[in-house]
Amino acid sequence: MRKRDKRVLYTLLLLFVLLLILYLQRAYTHENFQQASPTYTIYVLWTGTNEMSESRKDSLVNLKGVSECNVILITPSNLSDYIKPEYPLHEAYQYLSETHKADYLRTYLMNFYGGGYSDIKKTTGSWKSSFNELEKSDKWICGYPEIEGGVGYEPLNDHWRELIGNGAYICKPNTPLTNEWYNSMISLLDSKLEQLKIHPASFPQDSAEKGTGYPIGWTEMLGKIFHKVVYKYKERVMNTLPVSVFTNYR
């Protein structure tokens, strides 16, 4: 083979390898997110054994219709279907209040599954465009803009414009953001386990502020962790998600 032909062949091979690398990188990123939300999935949680109020039921119907997404309700009866054998529930889970159980599970789902999460509240628009925008971007999470006074981590109170709210979002799974969010929560539960065994939650909204001996503060499981982590990775955050309705939902 002549030298000129060899150069052409090497050039073509190099070009092929580069194109293959770009294709695989794109395919992995796309598949990684698509697997988490193949049908625009939004997870919602009801961690108690009591029946939902009519307002909650109405909010759930609204979320299913207005979001235009596949809304999956996770309750104690089907929770085991979503817990990965290699990542079992923390031992402390059984001692948590229903509110803190929901904080735990949303963190778990966003880290290991990704897709959408919403509190059982009405939404104000379709989520589909936010799913699509996040998928096409290099961002890791999409939420709605935080409001003044809504920050769960006090040192960041003045940075609320740079944060997203804590009641609804879409995440890509297994990112540095969700990993740190989840691992910080697990570390907290490790530190509280022995106290929780002595003082488990005594009612659904129990918190350290109630004076029952329950050792976890109202925002300690979620807000204090979530907003700290979101601020750290704020360059990877979008805020185009429709805002939830925060009135008359209980």
UniProtKB/TrEMBL annotation:
Q: Which Pfam families does this one have?
A: Caps_synth
GO MF term list: glycosyltransferase activity
Q: Which Gene3D superfamilies does this UniProt record tie to the protein?
A: 3.90.550.20
Q: Which InterPro entries does the UniProt entry name for this protein?
A: AfumC-like_glycosyl_Trfase, Nucleotide-diphossugar_trans
Q: What is this protein called?
A: Uncharacterized protein
Species in which this protein is naturally found:
viral metagenome
